[in-house]
Input
Amino acid sequence: MSIITVKNLKKSFGKLEVLKDINAEVQEKEVICVIGPSGSGKSTFLRCINRLEEISGGEVVINGHNITDPKININKVRQQVGMVFQQFNLFPHKTVLENITLGPIKILSISKEAAEKMALELLDKVGLKEKASSYPGELSGGQKQRAAIARALAMNPKIMLFDEPTSALDPEMVGDVLEVMKQLAKEGMTMVVVTHEMGFAREVGDRVIFMDGGYIVEENEPNQLFGNPQHERTKAFLSKVL
Amino acid sequence: MKGDETVDIIVAALPILLKGLQVTLYIFVIAIILGFLIGLVVALFKLAPIKLLNWIAKVYVDAIRGTPFIVQLFFIYFGVNSLHLVSLNNTTAGIITVAINAGAYFAEIIRAGIQSIDKGQTEAARSIGFTEAQTMRYVVLPQAFRRMLPTITNQSIISLKDTSLLSVIGIADLTQQGQIQASATFEAFKIWLAVGIIYFIIIYLLTLLANFVERRIQVR
Output
C-alpha cells in the first residue's frame, strides 16, 4: 500500500488555480524528487501533503489517514510527516538542542533527559553535535538547515518533506545538506523533495516528477526522465537547467 | 541658609510623600498586571478568525483610545457607581480605570508584536504537530514579547504617570499627598519639586529594569 496517495488534488489561491489535477502515489521508503519551473506549483503540492495549505479539492491520504476529511486530527498526522523549509524556520529564541527537543517534550510527552539524549544523537548524525547549545543566529545557513532536519527527525516521522532545502544556501554549504539527505534516503526514509538540484534528483531519487502549470507533466525513474524525456515541456525545462 | 531650609522642608514632608508613593505603586502594579492580561486577551480577540470577537476588540480599543483618561475615570467612579449596581471605592475604581486604559494600548502592542513574527515560525511549529494554541505559547508569543518589550515599557511609564490623575477622586497617592503637603506648608515650589523628583526616580528605575530584562532575553 502506498504511504502517500494524492487523487485529483486541486488548490486555488483566490481566483488563481495553482494545482489543477494532481494524482500521485508514493510507496514506503521511496525518494521522490519534484522538479519544475518556478510557479509550477511544486511547493504548493508539497505543502498540501501536510495541509499547510488548505486543500481546495480532491483527496490526500497519508499513511491511511485522509487529511481532507474535516474531522481528522491534522496535528496527529503532522507528527508523522516531518518538513524542512527553504528558509529553515528554526526557532531563534531557542538553542539548537531546544529546537529539537521542543516537539518531543511538549507533544510526545517524552522526558527532558530522554529527549536531549535523542537530540544529541540526531545532532551527531547531521554533524552538529558541538552546536547543541548555540542559537540559530550563530549558525551558518548549512548548519541551520541540518539542525532543521534534525528537528524534523526528532518526531520520528514516517515521511519527510523537503521544500527546496538548499535554495537559500551558499553554494559551498549545499553539499553538507545533500549529504545528510542522502544518508537519510539510504536508511529507508520516505522522502518527497522539491529541488533544483538535478544532480541530487538523478542520484538519490527513485522517481522524479516534473511539474508545470499546475499539472504533473511527466514522471519516471531519473535516468529515463533526464535521459529520455517524453514531453516537449520537460525537454524544454531540462535543456535550460542541465 | 536658604538651601538647608529647602532640604529641611522636603525631609519633613518625605515620610508622607513616600506613603503616597506606596499607594501609587500599589495601584500601578496591580493595574499594569491586569492591563497586560486584558491586552493579551483583546489582542487574541483581534487576531481570532471570529468576526464577533474582532468587533468586540475593536470597539473596546477605539472607545478607550478615543476618550480622555479622566473621562474614563469619572465614568467608572461616578457613572458606574451612580447606577447602584455595584459600589466601587475610589481605589478599586482607580485600578480598574488604569487597567482598562492600559489594556487597550497593550492590546495594540501585543497584536502588532504577534503579527511581526514571520509566518515561517508558525508553519514550522504546525508542521511538527503543535496545535494553534501551543504554537502561540511556545513559539510566537515568546518571540513577540522580546520585540514588544520596549513599547510595553513605554506604555507602562505612561500608565504610571496616569495614576497621578487618580488624586482627583481622592486617592491618597503621591500626587494627592503632594497637594496636601504643598497647601499645609505653603511651600508649593519645594514640595512639587520633591514630588517630581520622586516620580522621576521611580520611572528611571523602571527604565533600567526594562533595559536589564531586554538585554537578558535578547534573541541571539
Notes: The interface with chain A takes residues 118, 120-121, 123-131, 134, 138-139, 142-143, 146, 219-220 of chain B (CB under 8 Å). Helices of chain B lie at 2-47, 51-65, 69-82, 90-115, 119-128, 132-162, 174-185, 188-217.
